[in-house]
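G., before I forget:
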Amino acid sequence: MTTMKPLLTHEIGSLAKPGWRVKAIVGAALTEADIEDARVWGERLGVEGHETLLEILRRSPLDSEQKQQVKDWSSRYGVRLCESAGLDVVYDGEQQRSEMYAWAIAHANGFEWRGSTRSFDNKYYSKAAVTGPISMATPYHNQEFGLLQSVARAALKLPITGAYTLGVWSFDEYYATNTTLTGTAAARRARREDGRRQLIIDLARKLIRPNVESLIGLGADWIQIDEPGGSTEPGELDLFAESFNESVQGLSATFSTHLCFSDYRLFFPGIERMTACNQFNVGFANYDSRELGTSGEARPGYAVLPMFRDLPYKPYLGIGVLDIHTDFIEPPELVRDRVLHATEVFGDPNRIHVTPDCGLRTRSWSVAYAKLQNMVAGVELAKKELGL
Amino acid sequence: MSFQGDTAELRVPYAANLQKGEDALIKAYVHGIYPRSESVVAATRDLDRGRTSPEAVEESFGRDQDAFVALQRLAGMDYFSDGLLRWQDIFRPLVEASNGLSARTLVRWFDNNSFFRAPAVQGEIGLSGLPAVYAAAHRVSEPRVATLPSPLLFSRAAQGESHPNDLMSDLARNVLRPLAERLVAGGYSLIHFQEPWLTYHGVEDEDFKFFSESLGIVTDGLGATTVLQTYFGDAGPWASRLRDLPVDAIGIDFIETDFESLGSNWPTGLLVGCLDGRSSRMESVEETVATVRRVADELQPTSLFVGANSDLELLGRVVADAKVLLLGEVSARLKEGSE
């Protein structure tokens, strides 16, 4: 793993898909407002040649080749949004993908869809059931990575959804074959847990790892294994750590993971075994105060930082400083104070990275862009305070 | 008839009161939040993205609610629910209709890939009116069931500075009780309280009496049947105290609980949570009927309800619909056996 600069800034994963991309892909009629939106953002972000996109959009409805071109333009826009906001490490915000769970499952054998399930509020995901042996149908991020390599000016990080999250977000109709009400509840629980262990380890070995190997073969050097479901079952943190290691152990790249919206204390001591993980990206701002201040009392959302600091393999920690579930634009001074608090706890700014809590796909591009710009501005304020 | 003897046939201990058909003392119903249809999913997504109007979304909700009521009728349910289809989580409508509460921080809903916004206490708490989610309640057939959070769940999920037991009493007296009264006055004859906290996290022994008192604040003299549903955990360790709570029936998650751990001579009603609200597999009708019969034989509850162990919200709509129909078949078979 290469040494990274202190207070490295990056996005976590997703951005909203622009209206023109969504409409073009589903075949809905594009309005002048959609095309104007593409023009305005193309100019604002400095997307070179974006006039070509406008010409394509004006031809809607589009054929499949044109739809792919629109997706590619959407990726260019996403990368430029991150670069224009000033991030050190960039990505396209999943513009090539349907959704972090659905994209992976759609490229795996052994699953059948079971309909939409709500995550929260009006946010849903399509949930599948494992119904047969798991395998990778085809490497599912290669095309995306090839495109982003050709587009990005800044360093790239590629997020992929991890085995534990894919497993815990799926129904099991294959591994835990006996769910009968006869017998004891303890026996039912044991069968369920055994089935899930087999499911998740199979996902790590037969889907995630071959996909990661394929990406490394193309030159990917930083892969983020997203595990928003990581702490769903507090009793399975060993399985979570094992699945991460099974996915990447012995492979040559920087591997990080993303955790969010959990009681992070539950991850300890389980993740002490995640020695193949070089960096954690963890959402904290959702739990924090919006008042300024660098003390522990002023920063209640970051109380768990010492536990990450003390991990024996000394990973980098990407601290979430942007609440991705509100349109509140964190002022640079608030970001600064969150960063200064973290660096004080760690006693070493070299181990701190700065990120949003999670992907920004639930925010509009205007809000996401403003948040990211302020995040970068806040980091600059912190660097100034720290003399970096 | 009695519970003694052949376990292959349900024998109800309250023979003198037993009536057949629609008035049978075995009751089936769907409780909690029900999954939204794919059309409502699309409509609400579009609303968030500014691509449709609130009026269009409400029309979609209305069609969905009507379809859900029709499904319950088809399945032969004994109480009808609106499916809480408009609820963003089990607390949100109550928070939005109350003074002194707000909702912001996303918190995981137990061990599920589902989240709620934790109620935050910001001042003196009081229900200010009937939550807007009940505006279309008149379109739901009677008898109706309403689902509310139990005072214990509500207080433990909330974030505030007062002692959780004080908050529990406050929420019971100033939010849940006035709301329950309005619901009963509006035609709801069964009030179902969700209580996963107790069986998932547990509470200290000294807290249990505050829980019982708070529940009593809501239920005493309410004028409706009340059911407290425990789930997502083993009710066995709590059985001796659950049976004394001031409700008409206790719901037990029989996916997580062995009926043997509940003792015998259950002195109150029982809701047998026998369909798994977190599994897409369909249960066997025969096996489920046999399980309910065995539970009833052993525990001899004063009244018997059958349902899912939890909300069906964590399933896709098609799967949930199939489980409701399955519940109806189970209920019909049980009622046949009681005649």
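Chain B touches chain A through 47 residues (CB under 8 Å). Chain B has ten helices and nine strands.

More on Monday.
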